[in-house]
Amino acid sequence: MTSCIFCKIAAGEIPSDQVYADQDFVAFRDLQPQAPVHVLVIPRRHVDALTEVTPGDADLLGRLQVTAAAVAAQLGLAATGYRFVVNCGRDGCQTVPHLHLHLLGGRPLGWPPG
Ligand code: AMP
Fold first, then answer.
1. 100 catalytic per annotation
2. Closest by alpha carbon to 40, among 68, 14, 15?
């Protein structure tokens, strides 16, 4: 999608602090980190949100989490733990309409979330 900021980051048209990339996924540091490690993992393929996924996206969603877990290990979080967050829609506080997984770690994280 030409107007999507995360599509542009995936295409290298907008700079990002990239920590991982392969043919299907890109991971980069969040501009406004909420934890010592705050990385966004996105599929290169544009999907607006979890509300839009279909059973045909199961492989993509599974590999998104497998990729994010590998990125967490790469960043040294495997021993201490971390959290994945996928905000969806208005009540989920999604602000960028391109599916993305937040990887948060590097400190104890509170529960329940706000
Ligand atoms: P969400 O609120 O779940 O849609 O998360 C969107 C996230 O994208 C926020 O945490 C923003 O700080 C982050 N963000 C927005 N633009 C950029 C950017 N150009 N580079 C890195 N992170 C960004």
1. yes
2. 68
Instruction: Give CA torsion, residues 105, 110, 113, 114, to 10 deg.
Output: -120
**The domain containing residue 31 runs over which residues?**
5-105
Whole-structure pTM value: 0.98
Give residue-wise pLDDT tens across range 52-74. Answer: 999 999 999 999 999 999 999 99
Catalytic one among 38, 46, 100, 102? 100
Asked if residues 92 and 77 have their Cβ atoms less than 8 Å apart, the reply is no
Distance 74 CA to ligand 1 centre (A): 21
- CATH (domain of 78): 3.30.428.10
